[in-house]
Amino acid sequence: xxxxxxxxxxxxxxITIHELGHYGVARACGVKILKFSFGFGPKLWSKKFGxxxxxxxxxxxPLGGYVSMLDERDEKVKVLPEEVHRAFNRQSVWKxxxxxxxxxxxxxxxxxxxxxxxxxxxQPEIRPVMAEPVxxxxxxxxxxxxxxxxxxxxxxxxxxxxxxxxAILENAGSRDVPMELRRDESHYTVYxxxxxxxxxxxxxxxxxxxxLKLHFGKPVFFNIQAGSPAEEAGVRDGDVVLxxxxxxxxxxxxxxxxxxxxxxxxxxxxxxxxxxxxxxxxIEPRMQxxxxxxxxxxxxPMIGVYVGIKPDLIWLKKGPIEAVGVGVDRLVSITKTTVNxxxxxxxxxxxxxxxxxxxxxxxxxxxxxxxxxRTYLSFLAMISVSLGLLNLLPIPLLDGGHLLYYxxxxxxxxxxxxxxxxxxxxxxxxxxxxxxxxxxxxxxxRLLE
Length: 449
Hints:
The chain is of the alpha+beta class. Helix content is 43%, strand content 23%. It has helices at residues 2-28, 93-121, 138-141, 161-170, 206-210, 229-233, 252-260, 320-347, 358-370, 373-392, 399-412, 418-448; strands at residues 33-49, 54-69, 123-126, 149-153, 156-157, 177-183, 186-192, 217-222, 240-244, 247-248, 267-272, 278-283, 286-291, 297-302, 306-311, 313-316.
């Protein structure tokens, strides 16, 4: 149920904002607005307002909306002689261009506003501190080590993990991309080759493709069992593991693997207690029979303590001006990533598996809503950018197709022949339907997987 509600709200809000963009600029240009509908399908409620008698409608299907303008080309609408100058088709090409472009622009502005709002509200983020990279990966070859902190990526300041992820996506396809890191008190720069980065691989993230592993935080011990090797060695609740067998910045996962593969041999630990005191301990794991993740009994070395993570977090909060800058940066990053992905699909460098239809979007909407309002607003912002960019594609039937017509009209000094525009509409319909079928096919393939 949550998935359906989140999906309906997302589409309703985003498409309504899109249509309000058309509506606002059309009004500013003097075009008469006949109807504005929230949703489509049968009317549930309607009322006329204003001197123009614009009919505001709430329709049964809240998956979109529309704005209807006075237009002489509409055979169902009678245009009075005294109102001819207010018809859409009678406006200058520049006004028509602005009215059509306003819809996608409204979606892009909404995304900036949502990202800016979240930046002003503040949020915790994981510091961009690296763990030991994957062996033989590009990260390992560049000499990145555990506890190296990323400070800049291609000239852009990196404050949290989200910044780093966006920076990598934004620069996908490029070579010699500089990344500045801090190690202890010194700085050094490495240069990435992102030309082979695959954005259509849903199973392996861009960071993982590069061999980068994040240091999410230090392992921490809690719930020590009475009489266990950990208690006998002097482990206390809240002890943070700084190192194990000489490996610093070890992850909780790797620490557990080290203990389980110890064969019962002592594990040397460097611990920091809740008061900041550091001490060395040696713990000799004891063989115990337990049930693994699949419920099967196994015998493995254990130390009798639960291992958690003390997250390495930073609280990021921006003022209004900085927050708008964050929104613009996010918009630029998504736009660059989208353009790169489309270019890769057109040139055959990437497949079309990354195209998503309504089923996948609904799934994302539900999952993001479950994770809280921040995640849901981030989802709304990203889909809003996608909707805006999609409508700017130069495909007839979409806003971008009309903008293409108007651009050619500006260059030619007169409108395109009606026959050319009709042919374009047919081609555009075919393209839109083909993309829709492909996206739906990908949705169902994901469900089957």
